[in-house]
Amino acid sequence: MEFIKSILADTVGIKESSIQSLLELVTERKISKNEFLIQEGQTCNFVGFVKEGVLRSFVYSKVEEHNNDFYFPNTIACALTSFLTSEKTNCNIQALSDSTIFCLSRQQLDSIMSQNMEWLKLSKYISDTYFIRKCKRETTFLKDQALERFKLTLELFPNIEQLVSQYHIASYLGIKPQSLSRLKSSHR
Question: What is the CATH architecture of 2-118?
């Protein structure tokens, strides 16, 4: 579980001496390609540390799916609004490849935070990361053309083109796959 230690120590700034208490609580969950980590209508009561695989978050409209986030190794996957409010989620998180996620329940996170205030750093990191990524995406949808949205996506998710199908990237950008092909040709 070195990857969790790396996330917690290097990225979040949690002391090594505190990390062991979390490692004793996480449970491993293996998800096959196309399987769901969580589905619309469920309540998200966990944060997941992605060890391997790629997942997407999406919502349904009346006629199609709309991707709104991706999760890669060494990131945290969660239906955050549901996690924070304990209400049912309106999103789905689905594996795009066989994936391994280590999950920490809301109850467990609350428990370790009550014992050691240093764990508030993790909660803040998760919220800040999601908030900043969502704000960047919202802003680019409001003011930028598809090419600029594509460039931002490449910044937010390095190597996405090697790991995620063009169809899913196009959905995330709010364009058709054919339009993405043209964008990529003009971007090179």
Answer: Sandwich (2.60)
